[in-house]
Design brief:
homodimer, 182 residues, mainly alpha, Arc Repressor Mutant, subunit A, two-stranded antiparallel sheet, 7 helices, 2 strands, globular, DNA-binding
DNA sequence: CAAGATACGTCAATATGACTGACATAAATT
DNA sequence: AATTTATGTCAGTCATATTGACGTATCTTG
């Protein structure tokens, strides 16, 4: 069997003991949270990856169909802002989702150049299935945390997000107060 | 100017009001935390992306040099477990980091087949720079949260991570409570 | 109305980072 | 001596991203 102990693997000398303590010579780096975020997100998106394979889709498809389902009537331009990709990249993925009947387009009422995007029941079902897997993980994670603690987690995540030049979905999430429109 | 209001964009009828309330017909899905995780991670890794461009590196290089810096003496096989990629994928990225002097290899003492990986001062400097950017964001995010709340955030992130079949880095992070064997 | 800007789609070429499969070598284990 | 392990590499492919250019329909503005 392989050696079970760490061969020479050790915490760096400037981060002995408490992983978020001030460094001796350098500054206080948050190694622990940096790495926890990496692993948490790795496993979080991993849940969906396995399911998506069965549909012949990748992460790109998930992101698109998720936000279209959640924010019906999203424009192509909005989606580009949210996903931070180019329209050429979005094009292929979106075309697949349209061709296979997960999304439909509707010409905008006010502006007929716009193609407003809506998920079909088929698309919504896929999104709900994937969100279910991720919800299971989140529920397990918050099982030992009281409601105030969960709100603290939300507060932390919200504060990790850039607020300058927010896209439409972020505006909806952070709301001027309004989720929809009062 | 483009329309500033959401053209038809609204929360789904089954998620009115509180975003994590039980759905009318379906189950209780954690849309809010799912999306907060997406945006938080998007902006979190975005910090490093901009710096990495100046070095001609991508996210793959960052992940490799980060874990090698943090866990000196990491074996190639360990790195494959942590990053969950194939050795062929790791190969090219690792070769670049070796060629450009960010990482050095040392033959294992006990097992001469092993190539133990160590960051050079040049490599450590890059990692510290990138971790500094991410630490700035984390510090801003926890600014309004008391120490107990920050510990709750850590607890949440730890609980989001798969604990079955953990890699060596995860064993180090979770320490004594390791699943493998005592 | 004419001119320009905007929203979207698409063609072409390219880069990164991932994959499978096969094979080679050196060193450890049995 | 035979096998397994740790690592490296070649070859081909795929998914997702990029930049740049161009076309078309539609809205806005002078």
């Amino acid at each position: 069997m392989t050696d079970i102990n760490f061969s020479g693997m050790a915490a760096k000398p400037d981060s002995q003991g408490d992983d978020h303590a001030p460094a001796a010579g350098g500054r206080d780096l948050r190694w622990d949270i940096i790495e926890l975020l990496f692993f948490a997100y790795r496993d979080f998106v991993g849940d969906a990856d396995q399911e998506l394979e069965a549909f012949g889709f990748g992460r790109a498809h998930h992101r698109v169909i998720h936000f279209v389902t959640r924010y019906p009537g999203l424009k192509v331009a909005d989606l580009l802002d949210v996903l931070r990709i180019t329209k050429q990249s979005l094009g292929r993925v979106l075309k697949q989702l349209l061709d296979e009947g997960y999304i439909v387009q509707k010409t905008g009422n006010n502006d007929r150049r716009q193609r407003l995007l809506y998920a079909t029941p088929k698309g919504e079902a896929l999104v709900a299935k994937l969100a279910g897997l991720q919800t299971d993980r989140i529920n397990r994670a918050v099982a030992g945390i009281d409601p105030a603690g969960v709100e603290t987690v939300r507060q932390f995540l919200r504060a990790m997000i850039d607020r300058d030049d927010p896209d439409k979905v972020l505006e909806a999430i952070f709301g001027g107060g309004r989720k929809t429109r009062e």
